[in-house]
Specification:
Blueprint: H1 13-26, H2 31-36, H3 40-56, H4 61-74, H5 78-91, H6 95-103, H7 110-124, H8 131-139, H9 144-167
Helix pairs in contact: 3-9, 4-5, 4-6, 4-7, 4-9, 5-6, 7-8
Length: 184
């Protein structure tokens, strides 16, 4: 399957303004958005959910990035692990936490470890989490609202991770320092 890395000028008309906004925010058009631009629905959905998480999530920006890295690693998405490792550092996630998540290890802080473990369990159990996984998450201080926010991030990252698998999206230069490769 061949995917196009669109720019704001090459994208379908309904995606052009969105890609221009993305370029304005990042200073460039990340390759994932260039791929998404082929489908105005995919691009708009991804951007809308990111915006909703930013403005309404009960999880902090750092916690959101922890979930995004954990999910992307579990799904084996080279592009998203690199991108979110970079963004996590920008939001203040400690380097040790990012390294642990990239390696599939538990972060040192118990709350971060519980968050990553829960996100991974959602994927591994396809939402049918054993009671002990649910209890451990709540005992770490999270609420049912946080469960739903984690599920939202899992859905968002599934969209981007699977897109990157199919498109073999190249890692942008801006994320290259955090390049990561899934181990087979």
């Amino acid at each position: 399957m061949q995917f196009t890395l669109h720019t704001p000028t090459s994208a379908p008309k309904a995606s052009q303004a969105l890609l221009s906004q993305v370029a304005g925010i990042y200073g460039f058009t990340p390759n994932l958005y260039g791929v998404f631009a082929e489908s105005p629905v995919a691009l708009s959905t991804y951007l809308s959910v990111l915006d909703l998480l930013k403005t309404h999530s009960s999880l902090s920006p750092q916690e959101q990035q922890i979930v995004m890295i954990a999910v992307s690693r579990t799904n084996g998405c080279d592009y998203c692990v690199a991108a979110h490792s970079t963004v996590a550092g920008m939001t203040g996630v400690p380097g040790e936490t990012v390294s642990a998540l990239r390696d599939g290890a538990a972060p040192a802080l118990p709350r971060e470890a519980a968050l990553a473990r829960f996100a991974n369990a959602v994927i591994e159990h396809r939402g049918w989490l054993p009671e002990e996984e649910q209890s451990a998450f709540l005992e770490a201080g999270f609420k049912t609202r946080d469960v739903l926010d984690v599920l939202t991030i899992v859905a968002l990252k599934t969209l981007s991770n699977y897109t990157n698998h199919l498109a073999d999206t190249p890692v942008d230069e801006a994320f290259a320092a955090q390049k990561w490769q899934a181990k087979d």
